[in-house]
Write a structure and sequence with these properties.
512 residues; 8% strand; alpha+beta; cell membrane; 6 strands; two-stranded antiparallel ribbon; transmembrane helix; single chain; transmembrane; MFS transporter; Growth Hormone, Chain: A
Length: 512
């Protein structure tokens, strides 16, 4: 038993390292989306540029189902190991090349086009990676313990995001703001190639999964995995149930807690970028062990209600949570210490265009500090340049939280991470167990990547659009409007899952 566990830990270590690196590669784009919007898109409309960046980010998710089909078929034909070796190299190469792509200022329209193509390659690679790694670990795991062992793979997505945030923070700390803005943002992308190489060296010595080797030796592998997965009406019902009863709800909960929360802190609450990244990083670090906790719990209680509990909690509490987050930086409800207010005005000259920069710093009684930088364009004689009777100005507001407000924001993000661990911890075991070995890679990968890639991946762009529309209409709680998308999707998924998912849905039943 001890030797078997030792082998299992080697399998998990090798599989997890590669999957973690692929998630890191995939997520640094999202983590740097605000910076990238200024590099690969026209700078004259920041809002449009940011939405374009989110759309490019989402494009990587949209193609994930195609990667699931292509690489899932390969995985069921030639094996799990070799397929996710290919996806690792494809992901690493695309990420490295994003870091090498010239900016919009240098090559114009070709910059966003190249980045979009590389982002699509990333999505295809990830579409093949996750199903392979999850299947590989599950097929090494003993019966009755798959939830526990596969939950270690589930931690890699969150750790990938966590490491992307750490690398970005360290890069910012080691460089000046000007250096990071000029070239430093490329460093996290370029570093990927070295991590991929290390993972490749580890993975190439792994053996094929025992269940696949057994099926292959007995001549029971699929001859046409796509047809047997989706052309078979009985199996197709399970594919659809896996998607609409589990994966799509899990996808929106996952991306709300990790990506929408990050975007919300930076673009709605105006929390300082480094502080927001650190807050999310702390919450991720505290929450990650719960993937294993709930994965193991699902071995004892069943996958269904552990996953659905996370969805139901999210549906019922998202709006109160985000309202509480918003109020932490809402200065309308705070009392300013006017004796600590500072105003600094000085001229600046850049590219022969005169500017006046006014920095106002306000401190509130709860420790919150708000810095507003207003840049006014000036004529040659020093007067503000007017447009429609108003000075041409741009403004940037940054909020720093202190003390209990800082801790409360960490706690509110942490609660959302717990929801993620409830829905995500057991789902790999759930998907593996409802499909037979010969078509498992293909069958489980498609619903997972549609649920995450389509329903989850579109969340940042759709929710930002909904919130922007509500703001344009003058809606007072516009900042909560983006939540209707994940709440609606998770609600539908909860109802379908509660009614139709059965505790006896296993691969053994499918094989009969």
């Amino acid at each position: 038993m001890q030797n078997k566990n030792k082998t299992l830990w080697k399998v998990i270590g090798a599989s997890s390292l590669g999957t973690l690196i692929e998630w890191y590669d995939f997520f640094i784009f999202g983590s740097l989306s605000i910076v990238l919007s200024t590099k690969f898109f026209p700078a004259d409309n920041p809002t449009a540029a940011f939405l374009s960046t989110l759309a490019t980010f989402a494009a990587g998710f949209v193609v994930r189902p195609f990667g699931a089909l292509f690489f899932g078929r390969l995985g069921d034909l030639i094996g799990r190991k070799y397929t996710f070796m290919v996806t690792l190299m494809l992901m690493g190469g695309a990420t490295f090349l994003i870091g090498c792509t010239p900016s919009y200022e240098s090559i114009g329209f070709f910059a966003p086009l190249i980045v979009l193509l590389l982002r699509l390659l990333q999505g295809l690679a990830l579409g093949g990676e996750y199903g392979g790694a999850a299947t590989y670990v599950a097929e090494h795991s003993p019966e009755g313990q798959r939830g526990y062992w596969t939950s270690w793979i589930q931690t890699t997505a969150t750790f990938g995001l966590f490491i992307s945030l750490v690398v970005i923070l360290l890069t910012r700390l080691l460089l000046t703001e000007e250096q990071f803005d000029t070239w430093g943002w490329r460093v996290p992308f370029v570093l990927s190639i070295f991590m991929v190489y290390v993972s490749y060296l580890i993975r190439k010595n792994m053996d094929e999964s025992p269940e696949f080797k057994k099926a292959k030796s007995e001549g029971k592998t699929a001859k046409n995995p796509l047809k047997e997965s989706f052309g078979n009406v009985y199996n197709l019902k399970f594919v659809l149930l896996a998607l609409f009863g589990a994966a799509m709800g899990q996808g929106v909960v996952w991306y709300t807690g990790q990506f929408y929360s990050m975007s919300f802190m930076k673009t709605v609450m105006f929390v300082d970028t480094d502080q927001a990244d650190l807050i999310l990083g702390i919450a991720l670090l505290l929450g990650t062990p719960f993937f294993v906790v709930f994965g193991k719990l699902s071995d004892q209680l069943g996958r269904k209600w552990v996953m659905l509990a996370g969805m139901l909690l999210a549906v019922c509490t998202y709006r109160p949570i985000y309202e509480a987050m918003y109020q932490l930086t809402n200065t309308q409800t705070k009392i300013e210490r006017e004796d600590l207010r500072s105003i600094d005005t000085h001229p600046a000259q850049q590219q022969e265009e005169h500017k006046r920069i006014t920095t106002t710093t306000k401190t509130y009684t709860d420790g919150t500090q708000v810095t507003q930088v207003v840049t006014t364009l000036l004529s040659d004689v020093g007067n503000p340049i007017l447009k429609n009777g108003m000075p041409q100005e741009s403004s940037k507001t940054t909020v720093h939280l202190q003390g209990k407000n800082y801790a409360l924001l960490v706690a509110l993000i942490f609660i959302q991470i717990i929801y993620i661990t409830l829905v995500y911890g057991p789902i790999a075991a759930f998907l593996v167990e409802i499909f037979p070995v010969k078509i498992r890679y293909t069958s489980m990968s498609l619903p997972y990547h549609i649920g995450n890639g389509i329903f989850g991946g579109l969340l940042p762009a759709v929710s930002t659009y909904l919130a922007s529309n509500a703001h344009a209409r003058g809606q007072s709680d516009f900042y909560l409007s983006g939540l209707w998308y994940p709440i609606g999707v998770a609600s539908v998924c909860f109802v379908i899952g509660a009614i139709y998912i059965s505790k006896t849905m296993t691969a053994n039943k499918m094989e009969s």
